[in-house]
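note to self: dont lose this again. the chain is below, predicted strucutre after it. 156 aa total, dont forget to put it in the shared folder this time
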Amino acid sequence: MSFATACRTIAMLMLSAGALTACTTLPPPVSTTELKQQVAETERAFARTMAERNHTAFSTFLADETVFFSGKVLRGKQAVAEAWKRFYDAPVAPFSWEPAEVEVLDSGTLAISSGPVRNAKGELIATFTSIWRREASGQWRIIFDKGNDACEKCAK
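---
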């Protein structure tokens, strides 16, 4: 191969690489504030599944390897979905929850949400803490969840 042919080949490869890069540019990064809003909205949508008595929708928020601390440790989407089915069977939701605090890692890959849990009468009965992971699709899925009994200090 001549020097001129080699130079043309290298130039064509560089142009091709540049064209491919232009076609595959990543979307602009999402700010931490926007990510926190996404997680809060996801947590609210997750809680709405209880209010709307939609167990199938509840399951869509669970990561495959989710872990819930529900008296005993529940491991995996199927185990959590099966254990929580009983909360969806009655016509009235036995409890509700909502995020009060949300934080997201600067990387945008993990988030924590926490807030009050209320009984059907609206009385504070517990608090929850959930860890969310952002998947490649951009969807947030819950990977850890733990509830704690409400304390007097929390009720004030």
